[in-house]
Amino acid sequence: MCGACGRVTATDGWSALFATRRARWEASRLVNEALTRSGHPGRVTCTTGPWVVSSGTGRSVVADTLTEVWGQLASLHPISATTLQPLVGDLSTSTARAVLEAAEQVRSDTEATPREGCVAR
Hints:
The chain is mainly alpha-helical. Helices cover 46% and strands 10% of the residues. The chain has a three-stranded antiparallel beta sheet with strand order 1-2-3. α1 packs across α3 and α2 (66-76) crosses α4 (94-112). Mean pLDDT is 81; it is low at 117-121.
């Protein structure tokens, strides 16, 4: 984040799409709907700039990009195909498609990286 103007400087492949608060709010709504339906403990809140990812225990982390949102959610609880299923049903908007694509990217990156204490074979 820029110290002078407060603007977010982190970007990902979907940052241009989520440049407006309305788009970030819509993404938050879609993500929270999917999380609620799948029983995932995380929640996402849209602010005037970044998103805030909260755990079921109240821990909150600021995420500047959609990729960071899903990364933080994956650190709370694994993102499974079941978690993403509600998103697959509503791909009528570019926002919904971007939310699903970012989630799938983080999910595949998470599955490719061995967890601490695990041995890759």
